[in-house]
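Protein Record: Sequence and Backbone Structure Tokens
======================================================
Scope: a single protein chain, as residues and as a discrete description of its fold.
Tokens: labelled as protein backbone structure tokens, with as many entries as the chain has residues.
Position: the record begins directly beneath this header, with no further notes in between.
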Amino acid sequence: MQATDILMSEHRVIERVLDALEIATRALEQGHAVRPGFFLDAADFIGGFADGCHHRKEEGVLFEAMISAGMPPNGGPIAVMLMEHEQGRQFTRGLRDGVKKWQEGDDAGRRLLVSNARGYVALLRDHIMKEDEVLFPMAARMIAPEQEAQLLRDYARVAEAAACDLSTGRFIALAAQLENEAQALAG
């Protein structure tokens, strides 16, 4: 197994939450009752898993290995990925701010929530596609096969430190909860 295979499998879990977030956002825009906590739970998944674990593996392990193998850290694909990670963090903060204002009775908060949810979904779908189709194949060509085992150990270290290993089921359960709730909204 290549180190990028783990990241791509994590992308599939993230995409499940993106689908759920998109459905719930559309339902909210159409005037359906959507639990504000749904969006906070989605932000928790994003912060805890997508950013807190997955992006940490990319930034602290894979990107560093690619830089060591000769990829420029500035002005190239890694710089773009890092910029998009930061944009995702901004959208997540905006999502949380929107929920807070909406819960306080400010309808502008609902619009802020919708705008940031839509922005995050669009950003991450495009980001994942670029990583899966361009960056990860590039990494597979650049990183020596004998380095793979070390990358896998480093990923495990990141997952343990952030308490975000998918095998614990915590984030898989949260993704499933969000999917089920979104499907009920769509039904």
